Amino acid sequence: MENDLTADGSYAISYPASDEAQAAESVKDAPSTPKSPSDTLRNYFRDWNPPAFLWRGIATLLLTGQVFWRLCTGKLNLDQTQEQMSRIGPQTLGVSMLTASFVGMVFTIQFTREFARLGLTKSVGGVLALAFSRELTPVITAIIVAGRVGSAIAAELGTMQVSEQTDSLRVLQTDPVDYLIAPRVVACMLSVPVLSVISFTVAMAASVLLADLGYGIMPAVILDSARKALVPWDFVGMTIKSVCFGWIVAIISCGWGSTTSGGAKGVGESTTASVVISLIGIFIGDFLLSVLMFQGTGTALKKG
C-alpha cells in the first residue's frame, strides 16, 4: 500500500495489483498464438448445426452396419424374429391380397382392351405376368408394408425411446439392437418376399377370372402365354427386390424410431417421416434394381 500526493495536495491510497490481475495483464499484452488446424476444425463442428435428418440418416447407416454384423456373427434373437414375423404377415396379408386383386383386374382391363384392338389377345397373359412379377407385386407389397408395418415399428420404437425404455434395456445389459432392431429388420426381409409371391398369385388369378368373364378369353390362353413369357430369372428378380424393399422399410423405420426425441409430438413426426422416406427409398431402389437385373448384367444372367 502506498500514499500518493494528488494535484490538490491531498493524499490517495493505492493498493498493489493482485496476482490474478497481473496475470491477466501479462496474457493480454502477450502476442496471440495462431490456432492449430485441429482446434479450428473442432470449433467448426461444434458450431455447425446440420439438419436433424442428416444426423438421423447417418445413424441409420451405422445401424445397418450393426444389424449386418449381428447377422454375420450369429447374434440374432430368434424368438423375437419369429414373433415379429408372426405380426408382419397377418397385418399385411389381407390388404396385400385385396390390393393385388384389384390391381390385377385394372391392368387386365387396360391391356386386354388394347391388345384385342390390335389382335394380340394371346399375348395378354405374358405381358401381365411380366408386369406383375418384375414390378407391380414387389413394389405394391413394399408400399403396404411401409404403411402398416413400418409406421408401427417407428411409433413403437419412438415411444420406447422417449419413455426411456431403451435405457432400461441397457441397464439390464440388453443391447436394443439385438433385442429390438435386428429381429424386426430380418423379419421384414423374410416376410416381404412371401407376401410378394402370394400377391403375384392373387393378381394372376384375378386377371384370369376377369379375362374369362369379361372378355371371353379362356384361362388356358392366359396361363399358356404367361408360362411362355416367364423365366426363372423373373422370379429371382422379384425375390431380390422384395428382400431389398423389406430391408429399406425396416431399417428406415427402426432408424427414425430409435432416434426420436421431443415426446409425443416427436413420435408422430418420426412415424410420418419414416413412411415418406421409406416410399422414396422403395422407388429409388426399384429403379436401380430394375436397371441392374433387367438391363446389362441382368440380361446376361437371364440368357445364361
UniProtKB/TrEMBL annotation:
This is ABC transporter permease. The chain crosses the membrane at residues 53-72, 93-112, 194-218, 230-252, 272-294. It comes from the Eukaryota. One of its GO terms (cellular component) is ATP-binding cassette (ABC) transporter complex. Keywords: Membrane, Transmembrane, Transmembrane helix, Transport. GO terms for molecular function: phospholipid transporter activity. Pfam families: MlaE. Residues 16-40 are annotated as: Disordered. Belongs to the MlaE permease family. Its main location: membrane. It is found in: Membrane. NCBIfam families: MlaE family lipid ABC transporter permease subunit. It is a multi-pass membrane protein. The lineage of its organism: Eukaryota, Viridiplantae, Chlorophyta, Pyramimonadophyceae, Pyramimonadales. InterPro entries: ABC_MlaE_roteobac, Permease_MalE. The keyword Transmembrane applies.
